[in-house]
Each structure stands twice: as C-alpha cells, then as structure tokens.
Amino acid sequence: MDLRELYQDVIIDHNKNPRNFGRPETCDHAANGDNPLCGDTVTVYVTVADNVIKNVQFDARGCAISIASASMMTELVKDKPLTEARAIFKDFHEIVTSKKNAGPDDLERLNNLAALTGVREFPMRVKCAMLPWHTMVAALDQSEDDVTTE
After folding, report:
1. Strand ranges of the sheet holding 52-61, from the earlier edge strand across to the other edge
2. For the chain, what percentages of helix, strand and coil (3-state, to nearest 5) are there?
C-alpha cells in the first residue's frame, strides 16, 4: 500500500467513525463554524482546566474532509496545553495553505493530520479541512461570532 492509499484510508476511517463526536453534557467553551459553499457546519465544544484542554468534542454535518479533520483535531489536542494546541493549529494551517513541503518532523508532530496535507492542492478543500480548527480557536478565544470560511 502506498502512502496516498494509507492517507485515504485514515480519512475514510475518521469520517465513518469520528472520534469525540457529539455534544458533551458540559463544556466551558463552544463555537460554531460554517462553510457555506460546501455546506459544512461544525460546533466545537472545549473544556479547559489549568490551561489544558481536558475535553474536546464536536458535532458536525459535512464532507469527509471536514468530519475527518475535526475527528483528528480532537484526538490531537485533547490533554494538550493551550499553547501547544494553538501551535499545532498554526503548523497545520501553514502546511495546508503554503507551498512548504511537510518534513518528517512536521508529519510526526501532526500524526494522522498528515493525511490531510494533500488538500493544499485543492483550495476549496483547504477550507473544509481548516473549518474545525478555526472553530476550535474561536471556542478557545470565547468568540461570540460564528466562524465562516467566506
């Protein structure tokens, strides 16, 4: 199996079996996101204690890229300090929006998110992959505004 097939399998798995999907009973941060061109919607729920993300869940409707990205995001940032979660956001954003090739260190740090680095070849798909991330940051910032890709 080549790397592209492996990445495709990871995306399909996270889309069909999203991790941390659903609304938690309680949370202290939440935000809504919308990609009107694609029809993706996401709500990210975060519980923070001592500057660490103790719980993160999402509820969403949308394409496989958006659902998979949200699922991978929750796995990657859960139990991470806020500064580290924001750094992962920044790294992922940079890799999918620039011409910079992801090096081995980037891929290791991004874990399964590396499967989504190919979206940079498709600008409309970058918005799908980034929507949950921008929504998580809005939740952390306790923004009252909905996140939109437009």
Report:
1. 52-61, 40-49, 29-35, 147-148
2. 55, 20, 25
The whole-angstrom separation of Cα 63 and Cα 67 is 6
Entry pTM: 0.92
Distance, CA of 31 to CA of 127 (rounded, Å): 17
Would you kindly state where each structural domain of the chain is located, as residue ranges? Answer: 3-148
**End-to-end Cα, the chain, rounded Å:** 37
Angle at 117 between CA 104 and CA 6, to 5 degrees: 80
**Residue 139, both tokens:** 């939740």
pLDDT tens for each residue of 26-71: 999 999 999 998 899 999 999 999 999 999 999 999 999 999 999 9
The CATH number of 3-148 is: 3.90.1010.10
- Average pLDDT of the chain, as a whole number: 90
Element (H, E) at 82: helix 82-97
